[in-house]
């Protein structure tokens, strides 16, 4: 299910309704907390398929479009895995991204000091890694035409897809990546396969042209196979990575593992206008469904990205992030990030601990 919400017109009031039903007796500084949020929940993915027969009902897309930001839980499950393509939960997600025009997907992968030991990489390799993958999200081979099933001239059955990018599509994602890199450490690595693919040759040319207008940007290019290797060999060399839809899909999963668990990582998808889409980068983990084992932190951190990139509420975003860090400092860990000496908790308890921590920030706000 998906919760989409619209920011109230009187957004700078003193009521926080992130924790529904909770009354705050002291007024809080609007610069820190004055965000009032109204929630509505809509179906998509498997739940929508079961209820309506389609993975993204019109009504859901309309409601999402009409809101200020969209927070999405993970989708997918065994039950729908063998559905025809247009009836897969994943298709609903692609329709939602396209329908909202959210072409820029920001996927941070930062190794928290508290979780260095959860990384599969050696401490000295993982420690201090702080990467932002900027993935193009509404173009490339995911959407390119022609696509389909056919037969070749030998009469053999084929499946085919098209990797295609237009100059405006490359330019707009390059601009987002440059902006992101300038707010970070100014290093931008564009990942492509320009030694083989025409779409990548054009990509490289445009990224080079656009970045040359920014003397404070240190631009480099890397082939995707090498980038996959470098991410494991020496991830600290990366700051911001910009890449196409499919390479970004693959590399962001890889980058996530450096941090210890994909269960920690949020994402933000934004377009030129309209609401952004915020979702954890992990899937629905159907193998542990209903067992209270999943790590809720990626979704909680996605809500922080929603506040920052979707609503411009930087302080509110920081409060959530600080609460997550503090909860980790208290030693609470779900199974995916557990290490000896920490306290193993379930999904629900982890969420409660973060809530408790957010509430306790009242005193310092
Ligand atoms: C992701 C997912 C999706 C993608 C799938 C579920 C369609 O893997 O968000 O990374 O490939 O984009
Ligand atoms: Mn993926």
From TrEMBL:
GO molecular function: 3-isopropylmalate dehydrogenase activity; magnesium ion binding; NAD binding
The keyword Cytoplasm appears for this protein: no
Gene3D superfamilies the record matches: Isopropylmalate Dehydrogenase
Annotated catalysed reactions: (2R,3S)-3-isopropylmalate + NAD(+) = 4-methyl-2-oxopentanoate + CO2 + NADH
Cofactor(s) needed by this chain: Mg(2+); Mn(2+)
Protein's GO biological process: L-leucine biosynthetic process
Annotated Isopropylmalate dehydrogenase-like domain residues: 15-354
Class of the enzyme per the UniProt entry, highest EC level: oxidoreductase
Keywords associated with the record: Amino-acid biosynthesis, Branched-chain amino acid biosynthesis, Leucine biosynthesis, Magnesium, Manganese, Metal-binding, NAD, Oxidoreductase
Entry's cofactor comment: Binds 1 Mg(2+) or Mn(2+) ion per subunit.
InterPro entries: IsoCit/isopropylmalate_DH_CS (IPR019818), IsoPropMal-DH-like_dom (IPR024084), Isopropylmalate_DH (IPR004429)
Enzyme Commission identifier(s): 1.1.1.85
Pathway: Amino-acid biosynthesis; L-leucine biosynthesis; L-leucine from 3-methyl-2-oxobutanoate: step 3/4
HAMAP family: LeuB_type1
Known role: Catalyzes the oxidation of 3-carboxy-2-hydroxy-4-methylpentanoate (3-isopropylmalate) to 3-carboxy-4-methyl-2-oxopentanoate. The product decarboxylates to 4-methyl-2 oxopentanoate.
Quaternary structure and interacting proteins, as annotated: Homodimer.
Family indicated by similarity: Belongs to the isocitrate and isopropylmalate dehydrogenases family.
Protein name per the record: 3-isopropylmalate dehydrogenase
Phylogenetic lineage: Eukaryota, Viridiplantae, Streptophyta, Embryophyta, Tracheophyta
